[in-house]
Amino acid sequence: MSLSLENAVNQKVYAVFAKLGLDNKFANVKVSDRPDLSDFQCNGALALAKQERKNPREIATSIATELQNDADFAKVSVDGPGFLNLTLSNEFIAKNMQEMLQDDRLGIEKDKNPHKIVMDFGGPNVAKSLHVGHLRSAVVGEAIRRIEILVGNEVISDVHFGDWGTPMGMILSEIIRQDGNLAKVETYDIKQISSFYKQANIRCKEDESAKEQARIITTKIQDKVPEFYKAWQHLRKVSVEDVKKNYKELDAHFDLWLGESDAHETCKEVVKLAQEKGISEIDDGATIIRLDENKGQKPPVILVKSDGGFGYQLTDIATIKMRYDDLKAQEIIYVVDKRQSLHFEQVFEVAEKLNLAPQVKFLHIGFGTVNGSDGKPFKTRDGGVMNLEDLIKLSKDKVRESLPAPDEVEGNGEKEIEKMVDQIAMAAIKFQDLKNNIASGYVFELDDFAKFEGKTGPYIQYAVARINSILRKAKEKGLTPNKIEITTKDERDLALKIAQLNAAVARAQSEKEPSIITDYVYTLAQVFSSFYNTSPIMTAETNEIAQSRLALAKLVRDILVKLLYLLGIEAPEVMLKKA
Ligand code: ARG
C-alpha cells in the first residue's frame, strides 16, 4: 500500500505546485466542506496569491489546468475567489479501496520520525485496591499506547507503582501495634493488608504520635533496615500480584513494573546535583527549588522534607533521569488525573533546570473524573469509593440482562455466554470512557452505556458481528469479496468515509485523543448501515456487484476490528441478543 486517498491527492497537488514553481507550503488538500461540490478541496491559492501579490483565481486556474490532465480526477474546478474543488474518478477511489483491503495496515501510514516513548500510566498504590479513579488512566493510557505503536513509535510502558511513601510506614506500624512485631507479615494477603491500611489511616488522622511512628518506620524502610525492608517487600509483592489481575482484566499492558522505590538511589543523586549546581536551597530544614517567576507563579518544589524523607515530586524528577539515562526515552507521556497538572508542571520545570533529560519532550495528559449522576466523583450506593472490581461486576450484570440465557441458544454454553459478557461489558466501559474528551470528566451512565444502540461499544461490536454474518451467508451462496467497483452514490459515499481512516488515526495520535477514533468508528458503522439498507448484497443485480459490495463490507469490518483493538476492545465473531 502506498498512500491513503487523501495523501495520494495531496501528492498530486504537490507535484503540480512543484512543476509550476509555486510555494508548496500552500499545496495542502483537505476533505471537502461541500461534499455536494467535490471530494477534496485546496484553498492554498488564496493565501499564495496574497503572499505573491497575484490574482488568486489565476493561480488556481493554472493549477486546475494541470490537474485536469490527470485522469484520476473526474472533475477539477475553480470556484468563488479561488477555491480548488477536486472530484476523483470512481476508478481511482476503487483502486485505493482495493489497496487498503490488501494491506495489513489498511493503509494506515507510519510516522515519518519514529521515536522512543516511555508511557507512565496506571499509577496504582500498594495496599489499595484499584478504584474507579484508576479506570481512566488504564483505559486512556492503553489506547494511546496502542495508537503510538501502530504508527511506528517504540513504546515502553511503566506502571510507576506508588510504593515508597508514608502509607508503607503506616501499614507496618499498624501491624506492629496489633501483633507486637512483624513476624506474621508474610502470612498476610491483600485483603488483610488493605484492612491494616484502612485502620492505620483512621488512627493517623486522630493520633499525632501514631503519625510520627509511621514516619519513623517509613524512614527505616527507605534506609533498608532489614526487618522493615523485608516486610515492605512482602507488601509490595502481594499488591503487585493483586493489581496485575486487575490490569489483565482491563487488558492494559505494562512492560515495566517499576515503582517510586526504584528511584531511591537516583533521588539522592538528584539532590546532590541540585546542590552542586546551586539550584536548591534550604528552607525551614527542607531542601527546595524555587521556580522561575516568569514561567508563571508556581510554588517551590520540595526535594527533601524537613524530616529527611523524599517526597512524591523528587521521585518523579529522579524517574525522569532514569528514563533518559537507562531507557533512552525521547518522549515521556504521563496519563494521570488532571488535578495533578501543577505537580507535573513543577516536575518538568525542575527536570529542565537540572538538564536531566535534554531534548526530551514531556507531556502530561490530564483526564477528568468519572462522575455519578450528581456530577460528583462516582460512588457506591452507600457513598463509598467505587472499587474497580465492583464497577466491572456491575457492568457485567447489566450486560448479562440483555443476553439470552445459555439454555436458550444452541451451541452456546455458559462458558461462551460468559466470555461474551466479559467482552461486551469491557467494550461498554471502555467506549463510554474513550468517547469523551480526555480532559473533561463524564457521567457514568448506568442505564445507557451498555445499550446495543447509540454511541456505545456494544453497538460497534454488533456492527462487526452483523458484517461477519453477511460474509458467512454470502459464502454459503458461493459469493466472496472480489474486485471493488464504484457504481452508485452510496458505494462512493461509503468508500470516501472509509478513506478517512488514515487521517482519523493520525489525528488521534498527534492530538493524543482517542475520542477521534470513537467518533470515526461510530460514523463509519452508521454510514455502513445506511449503505447496507439501500445497497443489497445477496440480491444485487449481478454477482460482480455483490462481490464488490462484499469487499467493501469486509473492508469496513477489518477497519472496525482494528480500531476497536486500538481502543482495547475485542470484537466477538458473533453477538447474541435476547429475543
Ligand atoms: N500513585 C499516584 C497517585 O495515586 C499516581 C502516579 C502517577 N504517575 C506519576 N508518575 N506521578 O496519585
Structural notes for this entry:
- The protein is α/β, with parallel strands linked by helices and 579 residues long.
- The protein has helices at residues 5-19, 44-52, 56-68, 90-102, 132-150, 166-179, 190-206, 208-222, 226-250, 264-276, 312-325, 341-353, 388-401, 414-434, 457-476, 489-498, 501-511, 515-534, 543-566, and strands at 30-31, 40-42, 73-79, 83-88, 116-120, 154-158, 280-283, 286-289, 301-304, 331-337, 361-367, 370-371, 442-443.
- The strands form 4 sheets. It has a 4-stranded antiparallel beta sheet.
- A hairpin with an 8-residue loop joins strand 1 and strand 2 (40-42).
- The longest helix has 25 residues, at 226-250.
- The radius of gyration is 29 Å and the shape is flat.
- The chain starts with a helix and ends in a 13-residue tail after the last helix.
- The model has no long low-confidence stretch (mean pLDDT 94).
- Arginine binds at residues 120, 123, 125, 160, 162, 316, 334, 336.
Concise summary:
The chain has 579 residues and is an alpha/beta fold. It has helices at residues 5-19, 44-52, 56-68, 90-102, 132-150, 166-179, 190-206, 208-222, 226-250, 264-276, 312-325, 341-353, 388-401, 414-434, 457-476, 489-498, 501-511, 515-534, 543-566, and strands spanning 30-31, 40-42, 73-79, 83-88, 116-120, 154-158, 280-283, 286-289, 301-304, 331-337, 361-367, 370-371, 442-443.
